[in-house]
Design goal:
The chain is of the alpha+beta class and 138 residues long. The chain has helices at residues 10-22, 28-38, 44-56, 97-116, 133-137, and strands at residues 61-63, 71-73, 81-84, 90-92, 127-130. It has a three-stranded mixed beta sheet with strand order 4-3-5, with no helix packed on it. A hairpin with a 7-residue loop joins strand 1 (61-63) and strand 2. Helix 1 (10-22) packs across helix 2, helix 1 crosses helix 3 (44-56) and helix 2 (28-38) packs across helix 3. It is globular and about 50 Å long. The N and C termini lie far apart (58 Å).
Length: 138
């Protein structure tokens, strides 16, 4: 039996638009606050479930928590993140495409070693964290 395609409901469309407008790897709470302005009757659980469904279907990328909350990213291409432990903001790590490509090749080699030892790799997370340039200047 073939899987039916996910419907892009009006609510999901608005959530996607607002996620793109925020552009800062927002938390569910942050997405909810801006979506609520456009859809006053929407619940937090609807936003959360919609983000999860959009992530599962490849429309957005779920970033597992480096802090206490999940974040979501409209950029689904391969890239890495920097998390500021001071202001708790997440940004795309400023890496050139050739650097990302080189990292991906190295990670692929590591995955082969791990799988050669009997493990099944389903993914990985590589995130940088520290203090952003704005917090450093304060």
């Amino acid at each position: 039996m073939e899987k039916s395609p996910m419907r892009i409901t009006y609510q999901r469309k608005i959530i996607l638009e607002e996620l793109k407008n925020l552009g800062n790897h927002p938390t569910v709470d942050e997405v909810y606050m801006v979506v609520k302005k456009r859809l006053p009757k929407i619940s937090m659980s609807t936003v959360y479930r919609s983000l999860e469904v959009l992530s599962k279907n490849g429309f957005i990328k779920k970033i597992e928590p480096v802090d206490t909350q999940k974040r979501f990213d409209d950029n689904i291409s391969t890239h890495y993140h920097f998390y500021c432990k001071n202001c708790q903001k997440m940004k795309d790590a400023p890496l050139k495409p050739e650097m990302v490509e080189k990292l991906e090749k190295e990670i692929g080699a590591i995955e082969k070693i791990i799988e050669g030892n009997g493990y099944k790799v389903n993914g990985y997370t590589l995130e940088f964290f520290g203090t952003c340039k704005n917090c450093e200047q304060k």
